[in-house]
Structure formats: structure tokens, C-alpha cells
Amino acid sequence: MRRLIMGCGLAAAPAASAAVDDPWLRVAAGAGYACFVDGDDTRYHGVGYGVDALYGVNSAFVIRGGYLLGDHRTKGASFQVHTLTVAPRYQLDVLAFVPWVELAPALFLADGADGRPDATLSVALGFGIDWLIDEHWSLTPYLDLHQVGGVDRTPGYLVAGVRFGWRWTLGDPFAP
Predict the structure, then answer these.
(1) Is this structure's pTM higher than 0.70?
(2) What 3-state DSSP class applies to 150?
(3) In a domain, 14, yes or no
(4) Does any domain span residue 105?
(5) What's phi and psi for 4, nearest 5 deg?
(6) What tens digit of pLDDT does each residue of 42-65 get?
(7) How many CB atoms lie within 10 A of CB 152?
(8) What is the pLDDT of residue 77?
(9) pLDDT one-digit tens code per residue, 64-97
(10) Can you tell me the distance from the alpha carbon of 123 to that of 127, in angstroms, rounded to the nearest whole number?
(11) How far apart are CA 61 and CA 3, in angstroms?
């Protein structure tokens, strides 16, 4: 019976964990649902596409740089939203599923006749869970909430999507 329990426990063990203190780098691309709410409380639904570069300082802290293109074509309006973000992230990295949270300023640019505001800053709050498929590949469902300057509605911009990423460990540059 003990062997059966131990065997089941080993089978349920995570396939990968990134809980190492060596720095790492990940590139990711993703897509998802995007919604912009203007000052008149009108919602503009669309699709968001993004790319990210992440640098893992250690197993708990990550710095993420990202670009997102939101394409909105609803209610007679057609415009695009571009966001650039540099975000510090805290993550709980002990298993194959790594929950994280980040809070960062973002540059928010809208183009097209109906894309208001044209250029402003936003504050982005992000949540997600990295699923470390193996030591290199990851799949990340995420939610980003932006409080956009000039828009009284919270969140002014919302993105819910999935990122697919490739990660490699850089190693300790000071190791002998």
C-alpha cells in the first residue's frame, strides 16, 4: 500500500519548476480578448495581440517588457490601441503552476478616428498563472486591467488572453 501511495505521489509531482536562482530569459507571444471603455461608458470589444520579453532576476522577481496591439472594430468604430509596458512582477515559483501579479505604468496609444485618448499613461495591474510545460515551454492565461488617464471608468482597458513562451536559463555569470 505504501508503494502505491508513493507511486501516485510521484505521478502527481510537477513536470517542471523554475524555482532556481539562476537568471533566465523568456520570449512569449499571445492573443486574447480586449475591451476599451471610453468616457461615455461605451464598450469597444476587440482582439489583442502581444509579444513579451521577460527577465527572471531570481525565482520570485521578474521584469517584463511587453507590447500589445488591440484591434477594435465594433459599434461603427474602428481603431487600434497600442500599449508598451515595463513591469516588475512577483511570482510564487515552487511548482509547475506559477501564479504571479504585477503592477506597472504603461504607455497607452490609440489611433483611428474613435480611439480616445490619443496618447496617455495608464497603470496596469496584471494577474496570471504560468504553466511550465517543461523546462523551456510555458503557457500563461492572464488578465491585464488598465486605468487609463482621462477615462473615469475602472478598468478603462481590459485584456484577457493566453501567452505561449520559450524560456532558457542564462546561468550564473560569476560562477567559477
Answers:
(1) yes
(2) coil
(3) no
(4) yes
(5) -65, -45
(6) 888 999 999 999 999 988 999 999
(7) 11
(8) 73
(9) 999 999 999 876 778 888 999 999 999 998 788 9
(10) 14
(11) 38
- Residue from 70, 79, 93 nearest 144 by CA: 70
DSSP, residue by residue, 61-125: EEEEEEEEEEEE--TT--EEEEEEEEEEEEE--SSSEEEEEEEEEEEEEEESTT--SSEEEEEEE
pLDDT digits (tens, 9 = 90+) for 108-146: 888 875 545 578 888 999 999 999 999 899 999 999 998
Contacts 24+ apart (CB under 8 A), 74-77: 74/43, 74/44, 74/45, 74/46, 75/42, 75/44, 77/44, 77/112, 77/113, 77/114
- Omega before residue 117 within 30° of 0, cis: yes
Sign of the CA dihedral running 104, 105, 107, 110: positive
At 85, which CATH number?
2.40.160.20
- The answer to the question of residue 29 being in a domain is yes
Which DSSP symbol is given to 40? T
Structural domain boundaries, residue 105:
20-169
Q: What is the CA radius of gyration of the chain?
A: 19
For residue 45, give the H/E element and its range. Answer: strand 43-56
8 A C-beta contact, residue 41 and residue 153:
yes
- What torsion, rounded to 10 degrees, do the Cα atoms 139, 15, 100, 86 define? -60
